[in-house]
Amino acid sequence: MNGAIVWLTGISGSGKTALAEGVAERIGSARALEILDGDVIRKELSSGLGFSREDRNINVRRIGFVARLLARHGVLVLVATISPYAETRDEMRRLAEAGGTLFLEIFADRPLASAIALDVKGLYKRALAGEIPHFTGISDPYEPPTHPDLWLKTDQEPLTASLDRLLTLLASKQLLQFSSAHSSQL
Amino acid sequence: MNGAIVWLTGISGSGKTALAEGVAERIGSARALEILDGDVIRKELSSGLGFSREDRNINVRRIGFVARLLARHGVLVLVATISPYAETRDEMRRLAEAGGTLFLEIFADRPLASAIALDVKGLYKRALAGEIPHFTGISDPYEPPTHPDLWLKTDQEPLTASLDRLLTLLASKQLLQFSSAHSSQL
Fold first, then answer.
1. Which residues lie below 8 Å from residue B122, measured CB to CB, with a gap of 6+?
2. Which of B34, B45, B73 sits opposite A65 (nearest CB)?
């Protein structure tokens, strides 16, 4: 089966990782799949990089490089990383498509106020207290996608509903081999 | 077919890249294969890193991380990088094997005098003139493997002979699906 890059972008707490893990759980062993999680990649490939625009972009490019390597060997790569700059996400799409790899941009769209209210990791509290510099949405920009392949308003529907829509998209692109991909019973 | 990591180590000019490319050429499209070349990885994943022991080790660990990702999706990963420190190569083997991935260490062994005499890239001349600090073999250490899975004395046999022996090793590990893997006619 063809590989592809499913690039989940959104602010911290928007649900990127939950979406990636939900897709992985539903697909199970039905096809080759890999999650490239921003936090893991920071540790494995980008120690020493900070959160300036330049460093964030270098980090995103490294993720894109690894994602393309995997995707061209048939892996469905789920990237879950803030990737705040539209230009750099677009660059990742161009590079993927230039190599014949399908690239889907998925916008995990949770309004900042909602992410702050939830604050699952307690990071917003610290960022608002000025303890974390360069924090996306607080002291660093986030440029939302203007034409994502899928726009998930993660504060307005349960995770299962977002997953249904994401799996339906993947099935429509022939990325899944089972027909009931849109069923939440999977 | 199972993936694996074939880790080619040796000084600059020892023939690592030629061996990796030779294997890729002979295997063709018979199986999933990827070359992770040290020079490419430096650019794609390790810009900003230098050549201190610590930085070299970080670079090697990044290569190992990507190699393991690919190998667990069935890719035969050919790593061609100096990777001068035995301890770090051993660490890469341990991490691969811990994840159930076969790891083969291949020593591209060309004596320093021979590499200097050839000096294909003109780097030794510059290193000997003191223009390149931290140059392996000249101003930086190289720790040869003590028990490599294959020891190729690349100054004592033609590339085709080294390739024959490397392909034979891969075939013996069930990493190739064709039976005449050891034939230089491939």
1. none
2. B45
The reported pLDDT for the residue numbered B178 is: 56
Among candidate residues B42, B35, B45, B44, the one with its CA nearest the CA of residue B6 = B35
pLDDT at residue A179, rounded to an integer: 47
Q: The domain that contains A99 carries what CATH number?
A: 3.40.50.300
Range of the domain at B50: 4-172
Catalytic residue, chosen from A29, A47, A52, A83, is A83
- Over 70: is that where the pLDDT of A185 sits? no
Determine, yes or no, domain membership for A20: yes
Euclidean distance between CA atoms B41 and B48, whole angstroms: 12
What are B's interface residues with A at a Cβ cutoff of 8 A? 32, 34, 44-45, 47-49, 58, 61-62, 65-66, 69-70, 73-75
Q: Where are the alpha helices (DSSP H) in chain A?
A: 16-27, 38-45, 53-71, 86-98, 112-118, 123-128, 159-172
Q: For position B181, what pLDDT does the model report?
A: 46
How many domains would you assign to chain B? Answer: 1
ipTM of this complex > 0.95? no
